[in-house]
Amino acid sequence: MTKYISILRGINVGGKRKILMKDLKELYHNLGFLNVETYIQSGNVIFDSDFNSELDRNKISNKIEKAIFEKYAFEVPVILRTKEELLHIQSLNPFIQSEKEEGNLINNLHLTFLESIPMAENIEKSKEIESKTTDKFEIIENNIFIFCNDKYHTSKLTNNFFEKKLKTKATTRNWKTIKKLGELISKK
């Protein structure tokens, strides 16, 4: 069994594309996933699956996306990480030098999950924004670590920006959520 977290993009935002977490949990159970647990309304689902290869990961994402579309009639991108990947991601944040610093910066930190590792030329295109914002970002593997000087919702470093520049699906969570997901996935 492999423990996964699926991060859904754009549900329950501004009253649109509404999915209740109890319904989402049931949908995952109906797809054959085990030990399903959700965290907050933004679409974070921890579950177990006997699929464990990269090819299987694509099948899982597609299976979940298809089931959501069939039930709700709207598309929701689903990005997966394993337990090990999520815990490893937490150690990579280039904006954190110490645990104390993490506590002081936690409201400024965000993580954008990418569906795939972007091509080098697309990463270069994304850097064009650096002169237009005081916010900072660093792309590491298939993740983008973001430091916002102000609120994330005022930043130019949005999912849409990164999807357009990097040519891959993206969804973002604040660092408090990332820390909590790490705690939850570690308990199982």
From TrEMBL:
SUPFAM superfamilies: SP0830-like (SSF160379). Gene3D superfamilies: SP0830-like domains. PANTHER family: BLL4334 PROTEIN (PTHR36439), DUF1697 DOMAIN-CONTAINING PROTEIN (PTHR36439:SF1). This is DUF1697 domain-containing protein. It comes from Bernardetia litoralis (strain ATCC 23117 / DSM 6794 / NBRC 15988 / NCIMB 1366 / Fx l1 / Sio-4) (Flexibacter litoralis). The lineage of its organism: Bacteria, Pseudomonadati, Bacteroidota, Cytophagia, Cytophagales.
